[in-house]
Amino acid sequence: RPDVRVVVNSLLGSDWYMRELRYKVNKSDKFDVIFTEDQVSGNKLNVAYYNALPGFGDATYHDLDSVFRNIVADPSGKYQMSTQEGPINIFPTHKFKVPVNKSYALASGIAKPTDVIENELLIDFNPNRQYMLKNELAMYAIIATTQFKRPICFTSTQELKEMGLDKYVRQTGLSYQLVPVLAQGAVDVDVAYNNVMTKFAFGNAKNPNVYFDEENRRHLNSMRYAFSQIAQALVAAGKKDSAQKVLRKFDEETNERNFPYGMTSNRGNQHNYFSYVFLQACYASGEMKLAKKVSASLLKDLKQEIVYYKSLGEPMSEDQFILNTENAYQNKPNNLSTKQMSFVQDALTCYQLTGAIDVQMTRRAPHISQPLHGHAQMEHV
């Protein structure tokens, strides 16, 4: 795809990396990043600080392009703030708006004729943040100047929430496309289905002799989670057969020997949590054979974890261990050993996940053909 430009967020705060965006590369057109090369050279504009100005503040939304060009990037220094370290650039509001060019959005295919297209994006930068980093300034600049002539996609929801963009993205697989539509949590089911079923590559994930370390298992878990979300969206769209195919596709392309469904990750049971979400999708779509396989693997690992955590301290009943673990998590007096204290969060999530799985299995037993509507929510400690 020589027409696609991959932009690495962690590098976007470098002047040399921003410089590359100013030029056409292969078939990828250049970007207007608003700031001049001199304004971002070296350590210049590494950060801009919030400072309310008359007529701005957070009472209303302000044009993003105008704020960046006339205040953040003001060449006269009129809006810079004096500090002991020297003058610093400021941004005067956490609320921005970006006009939507509907004709561009439709022509590029970013918006669909059936979409309710917004007249403008209303963006809320994290109100608790008193600073904005250079890479965030660059991302906002690209959004302000692209005008939906070309797609803009993200691979992480963390930055999207921080920048107030999460309500304007639609999932298409492992990426989230910026759209001029209020699409909170939406999945483009047709595009996403085609992507995961025909375009995704899994390498040697189904080869049982390949070892995946923790970092690679985390990447595979990202795929597992994406497949789960897409399957749930297909169920909601009345396409349970397609949802089952998506789930079976992931199961067929991975191998339980080197990437099991049940596996302790010592990250608050993150690995098992993603498998639990996958299990929810299995129940929702009516894929009961796969649900049985996933739940068996999960419950086996979770119960083995509890046995191990209990073995690290003095003997106590299950109820006593749960009570002591909850007390420890809340910094209350408890009888856990020093070793057990290291696994408080993991032990609690074991009980939460086990309980949630048991409830789902009980609900499914009498009526296994009934789908799970929407995402069953579970507090993730």
Quick summary of this structure?
45% of the residues lie in helices and 8% in strands.
Summarize the helices and strands and which ones pair or pack:
Layout: H1 15-21, H2 37-40, E1 47-50, E2 62-63, H3 64-72, E3 90-91, E4 95-99, H4 102-107, E5 120-124, E6 131-133, H5 134-146, E7 153-154, H6 157-162, E8 169-171, E9 176-178, E10 186-187, H7 189-199, H8 214-236, H9 240-253, H10 270-285, H11 288-311, H12 318-329, H13 338-341, H14 344-364
Parallel strand pairs: 1-3, 2-4, 8-10
Antiparallel strand pairs: 1-6, 4-5, 7-9, 8-9
Helix pairs in contact: 7-8, 8-9, 8-10, 9-10, 10-11, 10-14, 11-14, 12-14
Characterise the protein shown here.
There is one protein chain. With 381 residues, the chain is α/β, with parallel strands linked by helices. Helices cover 45% and strands 8% of the residues. The protein contains 14 helices and 10 strands. It has helices at 15-21, 37-40, 64-72, 102-107, 134-146, 157-162, 189-199, 214-236, 240-253, 270-285, 288-311, 318-329, 338-341, 344-364; strands at residues 47-50, 62-63, 90-91, 95-99, 120-124, 131-133, 153-154, 169-171, 176-178, 186-187. A 4-stranded mixed β-sheet has the order 7-9-8-10. A 3-stranded mixed β-sheet has the order 3-1-6.
